[in-house]
Amino acid sequence: MPTPAAAAAAPARYTTTAVVLHWVLAAAILGSLGFGVYMADLPFSPQRVKLYNWHKWAGVTILALSAARLLWRLSHRPPASPPMPAWQRRAAHATHGALYALFFAVPLIGWAYSSAAGFPIVWFGVLPLPDFVPVDRVLAEAIKPWHQWSAYALGALVTVHIAAALKHQLVDRDGMIGRMAPGRGR
Prior knowledge:
Blueprint: H1 4-9, H2 16-40, H3 46-75, H4 86-116, E1 122-123, E2 127-128, H5 137-172
Antiparallel strand pairs: 1-2
Helix pairs in contact: 2-3, 3-4, 4-5
């Protein structure tokens, strides 16, 4: 629990940049998860190839936004949290740490899979990215489930994060959600 002096020094809300990065990343991650589930079982076709390219572009964008978000977070003090039991604080820190790890792991594993499968990533059809690993079909098949399961783990943690935010808003009524809400008010 922060000391009274530390709580007084902490801002009441996240910065506008942090809020924008949070919500843009949230939309991109949820969209990419849904899109990935939808396209995974499509039969091979030009449409499927196009959708996979869009999915890869989203993944690289999520990776870049995650790096920006992490750098911003490391250089800007977060607002003080309302009082809560120590186990909730530890759970929140663990969940946020795992979310950040998966923000990077899921797209990097996807990039490795795409490289190993021999399908280069050309970001938005303009910027060719280097292969993350050499072309190797056996390696690609080994990596593929890691991308799928890490994405499912990210989806599960996002669900836990949303549930915790709703609990703070609807049960605890402690103003926690107002720290990251768009706009100026709580």
